[in-house]
Amino acid sequence: MENTEKKIIFSGIQPTGTFTLGNYIGAISNWAKLQEEYNCIYSIVDMHAITVKQEPAKLRQHTIEAYALIMACGVDPNKSIAFIQSHNTNHAEANWILSCSTQFGELSRMTQFKAKSEKHPDDINAGLFTYPVLMAGDILLYNADLVPIGADQKQHLELARNVAQRFNQKYSETFKIPEPYIPDVGARVMSLADPTKKMSKSDENQNGCIYILDDKDTIVRKFKKAVTDSEAKVRYAQGKDGINNLMTIYSVVTGKSFDEIEREFDGKGYGDFKVAVGEAVADHLEPVRTKFAEYMSDKAYIKECYTKGAEAARRISSKVLRKAYKKVGFVID
Ligand code: AQP
Fold this sequence. Notes:
The chain is mainly α. It has two domains: about 10-185 and about 300-330, 3-Layer(aba) Sandwich (Rossmann fold), CATH 3.40.50.620; about 205-290, Tyrosyl-Transfer RNA Synthetase. About 55% of the residues lie in helices and about 5% in strands. It is built from 13 helices and five strands. The strands form two sheets. The protein has a three-stranded parallel sheet. The chain is globular. The model has no long low-confidence stretch (mean pLDDT about 95). The protein binds adenosine-5'-tetraphosphate. Adenosine-5'-tetraphosphate binds near residues 13, 14, 16 and 149.
């Protein structure tokens, strides 16, 4: 990852549970492909995860599993920098510097903050509120050009851009302004149980959510129960949220266009279609499950990879943080 000609990508994922098909399609499935063309920096963002209550032992376990999972999805720690966020304290420091260039009003408008506050009314902590500032630091510390995200993170990326621009105006050019990289298809995978809601790791309804480590029977069973509509015709159209979601998922895992899918299931019922989607997803994820088990049986290797990743992440981000410290007027020598 030393080629300086290539553009820089930063992306992160929270270790808040086993990744969903939404996380996979919207974000991580692209991470491996991007490694060839870009200098990629990927992070397991455990500092973001504690904005909602986590059981410490589980968070530790999920963090290691998340690291093994991104490798199982094709992230190669020899091609990319892959690290655990809390191993690089520059993120916490950048968070403070950038907080002082972020407005209370703009944070108040973040829909994820509103949604998570409603979901956790007994713990509306300051970290949940300032989450997007920490995320801005994650990206800006590496001079990222592009940030692959699902559509749900677009508002946060916009905030990161605004904060960077404001800082640059206040103190002169310091941070690169990042662009979002959102997939054309699959940017918003919806819950199978309620296709008006996004599929989420923390969804209480297990049937609505496909986890990428679910076995084939479980995946097919969940797809069979997917909420659809009464038209019984496989076609992509307004008002058919459930079918549109299944078509999107099927299109991503098979590479078929919506027209091809409509032709393939012409005259067939939703039952056949749901089974076909379930099987295609399960087969697509099978190699990920196998690789994940392999990595998890060698924890020493995982540790070696994330230790090396953190060193590289610290090296790059320290330069940018130092520059920001200098610009705001801290005594640095
Ligand atoms: N349903 C989704 N469709 C497409 N992309 C999605 N992403 C998440 N859900 C979908 C993308 O996955 C990346 C990592 O997300 P995250 O773990 O940092 O946090 P999140 O967006 O809050 O994901 P979850 O699954 O909903 O986690 P919890 O339940 O813990 O809040 C991001 O790029 C995101 O866009």
